[in-house]
Amino acid sequence: NAGVTQTPKFQVLKTGQSMTLQCAQDMNHNSMYWYRQDPGMGLRLIYYSASEGTTDKGEVPNGYNVSRLNKREFSLRLESAAPSQTSVYFCASSERFGAKETQYFGPGTRLLVL
Amino acid sequence: AQSVSQHNHHVILSEAASLELGCNYSYGGTVNLFWYVQYPGQHLQLLLKYFSGDPLVKGIKGFEAEFIKSKFSFNLRKPSVQWSDTAEYFCAVIPGGSYIPTFGRGTSLIVHP
Fold first, then answer.
1. How far apart are the C-alpha atoms of A79 and B10, rounded to whole Å?
2. Is B3 or A13 the better-scoring residue by pLDDT?
């Protein structure tokens, strides 16, 4: 199993450009998450999908949209990128949506917005 | 505001030294607790977790953590670190009634050979 995969690994955007970060998991997990990691800030939840067909806002959803395409895939879209969105983005999944669930993380996407 | 605090932002140790990384949280009531590790250039992976029962939890690679409810703490320990333990360590807490973890800011550990 590949686990959680993310594409691309690196991306440079100009302010105002749009892009979609892709995430897929092959563990048949029900729940998926998008985080951003900034220096000194830890991980902050952007959006999550508790199950296929549902999505909800996390701590920092402004400037982002998500799509749970199917059970395997959960994409994150930046409609108009801003320098403040320069970050490392991690996708994660868990078998179920619950307080005792371990999350499994992807390798991350490093995004630089100029 | 509810939060998770990791007081040690940067820790530098020599091999064979003992390690203790602090994690404190501000939630009352039931909590589920996790420690994740991120090796350089890699993704986060679970070190250990605590839900209930014995407050001393053993994880992978010789790590352990102790839940002290009265101190709202879940400190990570290892008796003797190795160079390969160089990584960033994150504490995460899911308070009772929630399903979303809150992560601490992380502690960067550098182990000198």
1. 36
2. A13
